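Hi support team,

I'm opening this ticket because the web form for multi-chain structure prediction keeps timing out on my end. I have pasted the exact lines I submitted so you can reproduce it. The total is 709 residues across two entries, so I didn't expect it to be a heavy job. Is there a limit I'm missing, or should I split the entries? Thanks in advance, R.K.
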Amino acid sequence: MGVGPHVSSRPPHDPALRECIAALKHDLGKYVAWRSVNLPEEAWTGPPGDALVDALCADVLATRRTADGDQAAWDVFASHTRDVPRPWPALELAAVEHAVAVLRACEPALRERDHVRIAELRGGIREAQGTIRAELAALHRRLAKES
Amino acid sequence: MSSILIIDDTDKYWELCTRYMPEHEFLPPARNYREAAETLGRARGVDLVLLDVHFDIPEEELLPYDKSAVVNGSDRERALERLRRGQGLHILDRLRQSHPDLPVIVMTSRDDLPLEADAERLNAEDYTYLLDEDYLDARSLRLQVEGILARRVRPTASEAEEPFFWGSTPRMLTLRRRLGILARGRLPIILLGDTGTGKSLLAREFIHPRSQRSGPFVAVDLSTIPHELMAAYLFGVVKGAYTGATASREGVLARAHGGTLFLDEIGNLSLELQKALLVVLQEGRYSPVGSIEERVADVKLVVATNENLVSMVQAGRFREDLYMRLNPATAFTLPSLRERGDDFEALLAEFVGRVALEAYNRDLLLQYAQQRGLEPPAGGAAMPIAIGKTVPTKPDPRRVHFLVHPSSFKLLREFPWPGNFRQFEMFLSNLMTLTLVELVDQAELVEPDDRSQARPDVIPILPRVVRELLRPMELPRGPVGDDAAAPGDALRMTVDIAPGESLNAVSCDVERQYLERMYEKYSGDLGRMAQALLGDVDGGRKVQLRMNQLGIKLRKLKRRRG
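Hello R.K., no limit was hit. The queue was backed up. Here is the completed structure from your submission:
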């Protein structure tokens, strides 16, 4: 993934970081695959139906709904990590950043609800969703143990 | 179909649940504590609550409503954000005060809880569940919901007709099931619980009929029998055994032969008679007073007490060997009325139904119905009644509806009821009598176009009447001055311990009591309280925060002091 140069070797014992990751895990990790995780397996392999497109658009383009409007997955990531120092204090954050970038690359296809392009991209989207969830859960658990 | 309430500031859970669990009824989501309390107060029979943790809601809706202790100037936004991130746990605390038995799934995994301390606390609660997994999917949520609902089985029609009111909470239904099993066995049963919780009723109406024994049910209240007569009363006596024993008499053991013997207030049994009872349990034999002849005892023994038998054993006032023979491992503790908050509305309906059948109230109801042009049933049968916080929109002349004003309901529900169900029933009987007498006496004063009489089938239960009847029953707490000074700087005070849903609930109750007492003792000076508790006169905010967390209303305490 080429994340090495972006990661600090500083041990992440900062309580504020733990709080930030908890929020990120909730607002991004929980909702980035909220609907799509319930899709049947055929939705990911067969012809891309409306259910798949609806679920992916909701999960990726409107990951967080606030009074000020919907936030896409990359907006949620950016707003929550605004105060996190760079290079990233944890390897997992670099992996999440990379996965979020994968999702962002799919934005045009999702906004246009382009079924054909989405069919091509869905495997990558699913993998990125899984990475975000797994890495945030692992990081959150690790920080809890270390604190 | 189960009725489920979602407490969440967004529609995400509601959309997920209605889509993947169409077999259940999902009430409209409550967006904050206030809405949740309203819905739970209004809706009957909510089976389960799904409670989100993060609530992105306006500050004024966030718990605690008094934020002075948790939100300070410099870090205000951060403190509010923390409150929002953990708001579900504040809501849970409040819900547990009014609905201790209501199953609640807190929509977070153990790892995601804001504080470790909360994880420990939530794990200790009987009806609070966390999500099994970090990230939720519909299938795993559904499995968890089904598992919890399966434990909350509603009583059958025959159960509902039993004289002992079981209600529908898992705790009571588990108690019923276990007691039903043990009733059929040969081992003794211990019933524990405060006065008025229904121990004797349960022994007579539930255990004995299920014991499959053909003999009679015999009950003895050992607190009412003089000590010198107790042996003869229990075991019988032969003529001439002592002065005054002019004839041979059977004891209750003989009378209950083949049936059930219920010994209430077992703690009153002398040590000597405890030994004799032990022999009955061990060998099934006894001798009447003054006789050398042995008799066979074949009884199902049920004993009850509101004392702590373990403490009595430790103090040497109760034989340990008898205690062990009484099958203490399966002792049943009947909850007090105040512990049955989840069933309160149903309990109210049940007991109002009972007191309406008492002769005097029954006559008053018929008199009222005749005066107001209602339609009492033919043949002198009792006038049907209903009770609730709402009434049907369409008038029904064949039934009297007691409409419980919200304030009346709150007064009834929050009263401590130290005499439990016995006191509750007497109170309701008085309430019904006084309400009906007032209405019957005023019949001539009612004008035909009086709007308040537009619904003669509706009788409001007014807070004024409830308050007047409750007032004489309020037991004043001991004055603060009673708290004796202990050695050094310590304080000594008495607290009331009552069985709770969990150890944590009991601890919180104790903590509430001593914080309230200290508040009075120190004239509301939180700094002095902090000095006494933390050795830090500047720790008043911490004390206030803790009091808020425990649901202690400082404003109320201030008013009380005033």
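A quick check on our side: The first helix of chain B runs from residue 12 to 20. Let us know if the file doesn't open in your viewer.
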